Amino acid sequence: MTQDIQDRLNAYITAQIMKQPGRTLGADEALISGGLIDSFSLVDLALFVEESFGVRIDDTELNAQTFDNLGQLAALIQGRI
Fold this sequence. Notes:
The protein has one domain (2-78): ACP-like (Non-ribosomal Peptide Synthetase Peptidyl Carrier Protein, Chain A). The chain contains four helices and no strands. The protein has helices at 2-17, 39-53, 64-67, 70-78. The protein is globular, with a radius of gyration of 11 Å. The chain starts with a helix and ends with a helix.
């Protein structure tokens, strides 16, 4: 299940945020601290997560400690569904 979540996150981030739909992100590739997504995109990503997976993301979780890679984000989602 976690791999499916990571695949959906990867597809959204690469196509909608990065505008590089052919790219594949590694599970531990730094998204925020690596400069791949910015604070505006982070809000879009949080909305995608809430709508797609039916989980609630608190504003205090919108940071590099929670959202910095696909593995962290998938684990957060998996723990709430």
